[in-house]
């Protein structure tokens, strides 16, 4: 894999993986390759993630509101470079919540990146996905996608973040919003687009901000 300045960690927790691809907690796992700690988010690193995402979308809000930036990103891939999950995090401000962060995970079943980024610790969502009416809907590549709320395993996260999960194109789609109150922004029927399909519009993307806390 073309590393640029990406570093590897377990796709299910933040621990680094060894040269043999083993996590001290979860054993052999596919690695999450993301921007290195202390490095600035850059288009070059983002492009490296896009190249390794195969047919997995790398979703971002699009068009992005003024002042919002791409703050973090990553791809989970096997040793033979088969992509299993992608994540992108954007940050900005709202008049009600101040600093706001949004992480979007697209993953195959049984990967665990969504559980890591959301704090739920789940490999896959439970049967509550699809039970009852959805909490929110987002538009992904002109398709309406229903999302249901997930409960964090950490009671302290109730106010810290809101988590929503649904199914998109046969894969899990996770949205993690911080702080939790900023989930009200999703009522505006957010538009999400696959950055791997961007052409000239890619130059309009802004990068920066603190890395996500996952």
Strand and helix order: EEEEHEEEEHEEHEEE
Quantity of strands, as a count: 13
The spatial strand order of the largest sheet comes to 1-4-6-7-8-12-11-10-9-13-5
Cα radius of gyration in angstroms: 16 Å
State the helix count. Answer: 3
Share of helical residues? under 10%
Total domains, how many? 1
Question: In whole angstroms, how far apart are the ends?
Answer: 22 Å
How would the global form be characterised? globular
Mean pLDDT reading: 91
Low-confidence region ranges: none
**SS strand fraction:** 35-45%
- What's the story with the biggest beta sheet? 11 strands, mixed
Structural class, from secondary structure content? mainly beta
What can you see in these coordinates?
The chain has 214 residues and is mainly beta. It has one domain (6-204). The chain contains 3 helices and 13 strands. It has helices spanning 43-51, 113-118, 157-160, and strands at 6-10, 22-23, 27-28, 31-35, 59-61, 69-77, 83-94, 98-107, 136-140, 143-150, 162-168, 171-178, 191-194. It has an 11-stranded mixed sheet. It is globular, with a radius of gyration of 16 Å. The two termini are 22 Å apart.
Quick structural overview:
The protein is mainly beta and 214 residues long. The chain contains three helices and 13 strands. The strands form two sheets. Strands 1-4-6-7-8-12-11-10-9-13-5 form an eleven-stranded mixed beta sheet. A two-stranded antiparallel sheet has the order 2-3.
């Amino acid at each position: 894999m073309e590393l640029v300045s990406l570093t590897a960690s377990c796709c299910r927790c933040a621990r680094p993986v060894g040269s043999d691809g083993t996590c001290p907690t979860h054993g052999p796992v596919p690695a999450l390759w993301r921007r290195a700690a202390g490095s600035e988010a850059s288009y070059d690193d983002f492009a490296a993630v896009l190249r390794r995402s195969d047919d997995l979308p790398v979703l971002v809000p699009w068009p992005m509101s003024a002042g919002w930036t791409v703050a973090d990103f990553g791809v989970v891939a096997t040793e033979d470079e088969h992509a299993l999950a992608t994540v992108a995090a954007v940050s900005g401000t709202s008049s009600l919540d101040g600093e706001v962060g949004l992480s979007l995970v697209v993953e195959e079943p049984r990967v665990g990146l969504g559980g890591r980024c959301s704090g739920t610790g789940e490999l896959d969502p439970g049967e509550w996905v699809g039970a009852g009416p959805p909490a929110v809907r987002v538009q992904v590549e002109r398709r309406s996608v229903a999302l249901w709320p997930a409960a964090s395993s950490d009671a302290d996260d109730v106010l810290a973040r809101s988590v929503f999960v649904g199914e998109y194109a046969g894969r899990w789609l996770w949205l993690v919003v911080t702080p939790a109150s900023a989930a009200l922004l999703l009522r505006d029927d957010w538009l999400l687009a696959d950055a791997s399909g961007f052409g000239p519009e890619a130059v309009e993307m802004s990068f920066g901000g603190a890395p996500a806390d996952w």
